[in-house]
Amino acid sequence: MSDIPVPVTDDATAVFVEHRELMFGVVYNMLGSVADTEDVLQETWLSWTARGGGSPLDGVANPRAYLVRIAVNHALTRRAAISRRQETYVGPWLPEPLVAQGEEDGVEDPALRTESVSLAMLVVLESLTPLERAVFVLHEVFGYAHTEIAEIIERSPAAVRQLAHRARGHVHARRPLYEAHPRVRREATERFVRAAVGGDIAELMEILAPDVTVWADGGGKRKGAGLRPVHGRDKAARLFDSLARRGGRHLDLHYRRVNGDDAAVLFQGEEPYAVLVLDLTPDGEQVSGVYVVANPDKLTHVQRGEA
To answer: How many CA atoms lie within 13 A of 48 on its CB side?
Structure first.
């Protein structure tokens, strides 16, 4: 009998490609990192092509379920490595944003056609255990039944229901159910960015909520990104005024969809400088949270495109 591996069939490749967007969405929401998600999908491909002596479809009744199970388990393993990196991370850690290529919806990018929760929600999901997060993503975002999730993570349905209950409790305690209308979010984003980049303190004091928090993730590689979140309207306004004075007016501003929400992307020449995503108060009138992703390593997928 020959030891030469059987080439992967075109059918097996087509099945993997067909479900790649789904796997990307599930894994990205579990990890909050585009780079790590791509690595997990590569590991999933290798696991897929290694089974069955090069005939991945042999004996697989439901390829979609099989591939998702492989991807989720690779993601759970990768999650441990990400947690170790976060322990030594410089300053606040924020997820790697999914930024649309153009001013509209970026439908040309397959990653942006997947289900993705907001950047703020991804921050909340960091408070969950890896298994709780996997269950929450599969059930709440992708609509998997508890029995299906039980097979994916190899736990009993009762254990999955318990994980789901804990995850929902944690998320709902930290994240209001209210989501601003896209038009309201866009207007608030434009108003805030004009004030912040222009150093308009009076306008900033109007639009920032009294208990606003600013998270600036520079990874120790961007001047001006503090080592701790900034709490309170006065401190936040002074922070953005300082950034504007240090060169904010010379940055090019583009409005893009980031993780499905209207947001702002700042460029320095052709290079992305920062992504700004806002959280709004329930009435949509003020900014309750500002997420600034400025670590260059988290912006490698962001392209300038057309203004």
So the answer is: 29
Report whether pLDDT(102) > 60. Answer: yes
Q: What is the pTM of this model?
A: 0.88
Q: How far apart are CA 267 and CA 275, in angstroms?
A: 9
Residue 270 CB neighbour total at 10 angstroms: 8
179 and 259 Cβ atoms separated by less than 8 Å: no
* 285 CA to centre of own chain: 25
Judged by DSSP in three states, 253 sits in strand
CA separation for the pair 134, 210 (Å, rounded) = 35
Residues, the chain, total? 307
CB 103 within 8 A of CB 73: no
CB 191 within 8 A of CB 264: no
Q: Of 136-140, 198-202, 301-305, where does the model show the most confidence?
A: 136-140
What pLDDT score was predicted for residue 114? 57
Question: What pLDDT shows up at residue 224?
Answer: 67
pLDDT for 52 equals: 61
pLDDT single digits (tens) 155-190: 999 999 999 999 999 999 887 666 778 888 899 999
Element housing 227 (H / E): none
Contact yes or no for 69/134 (Cβ under 8 A): no
Which positions ≥6 away from 169 have C-beta within 8 Å?
none
Q: Compute the distance between CA of residue 59 and CA of residue 37 in angstroms, rounded to an integer.
A: 27
Distance between CA 6 and CA 281 in Å, rounded? 58
CA 299 – CA 16 distance, rounded (Å): 27
Indicate the helix (H) or strand (E) that contains 199: none
What does the block give as tokens for 69?
């199970």
